[in-house]
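Minutes, methods subgroup
Present: GH (chair), OT, SY

1. OT presented the first of two proteins processed in the latest run. Sequence and structure tokens recorded below as shown on screen.
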Amino acid sequence: MSVKNLIFIALGGALGAICRAGVGFVMTVLLGTHFPYGTLMVNALGSGLMGLLATYFLETNNLGQPLAAFLLVGFLGAFTTFSTFSMDTLNLILAHKVLLAGLNIMANLLLSMICVMLGVVLMRLFL
């Protein structure tokens, strides 16, 4: 991996983390704190974008481009978050909200899988 790609990954990661925090803030303002809507939203959006962008870069043979590293590894790697999802779920369990914890697990997994599949299908329609 080149230094150029590492710089693009770092820049994408910084932007992805900022956007993740922004989405989390907006979702908290809009929907409150009783469920981790922000994490669900970034995981769903990020999965959809991953499907779209990865399909584009793979099918156009541009995966090695710095833009692919910036978007796929840097931006989406920092924008989506498995660790926050895990902590949100544990916090719901510790608060004795086991049903909400289960809903959080199912919603994140199902919605993220649906979004990544939709992203792939949509990009293939346009290529």
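2. SY then presented the second protein from the same run.
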Amino acid sequence: MGYQQAGGPMTVAPAQATRIAMQWLQRAQPGTATEKPEQFPGYYTVHILRAGKVTGMLSVNGFTGQVWYHTWHGALIQMKDLHA
């Protein structure tokens, strides 16, 4: 994704980030789906689902729409909501 200095609000909306992620997944990992994107400064992170289970993660640049597939996480063990 590269470094990008924040220059105002992101130009890619959450719904667009979901569509971009799904288009990328249709080519790279057919049969997968996404969860709702989580917004961070300058990008969105999206969990990838197969048969309802999280199998990976990718990010969508909030300015360019570029997809960045996360390869370094390994297998998901668990998720915790730290806001609860």
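Chair's summary of item 2: The mean pLDDT is 88.
Next meeting: continue with the remaining queue.
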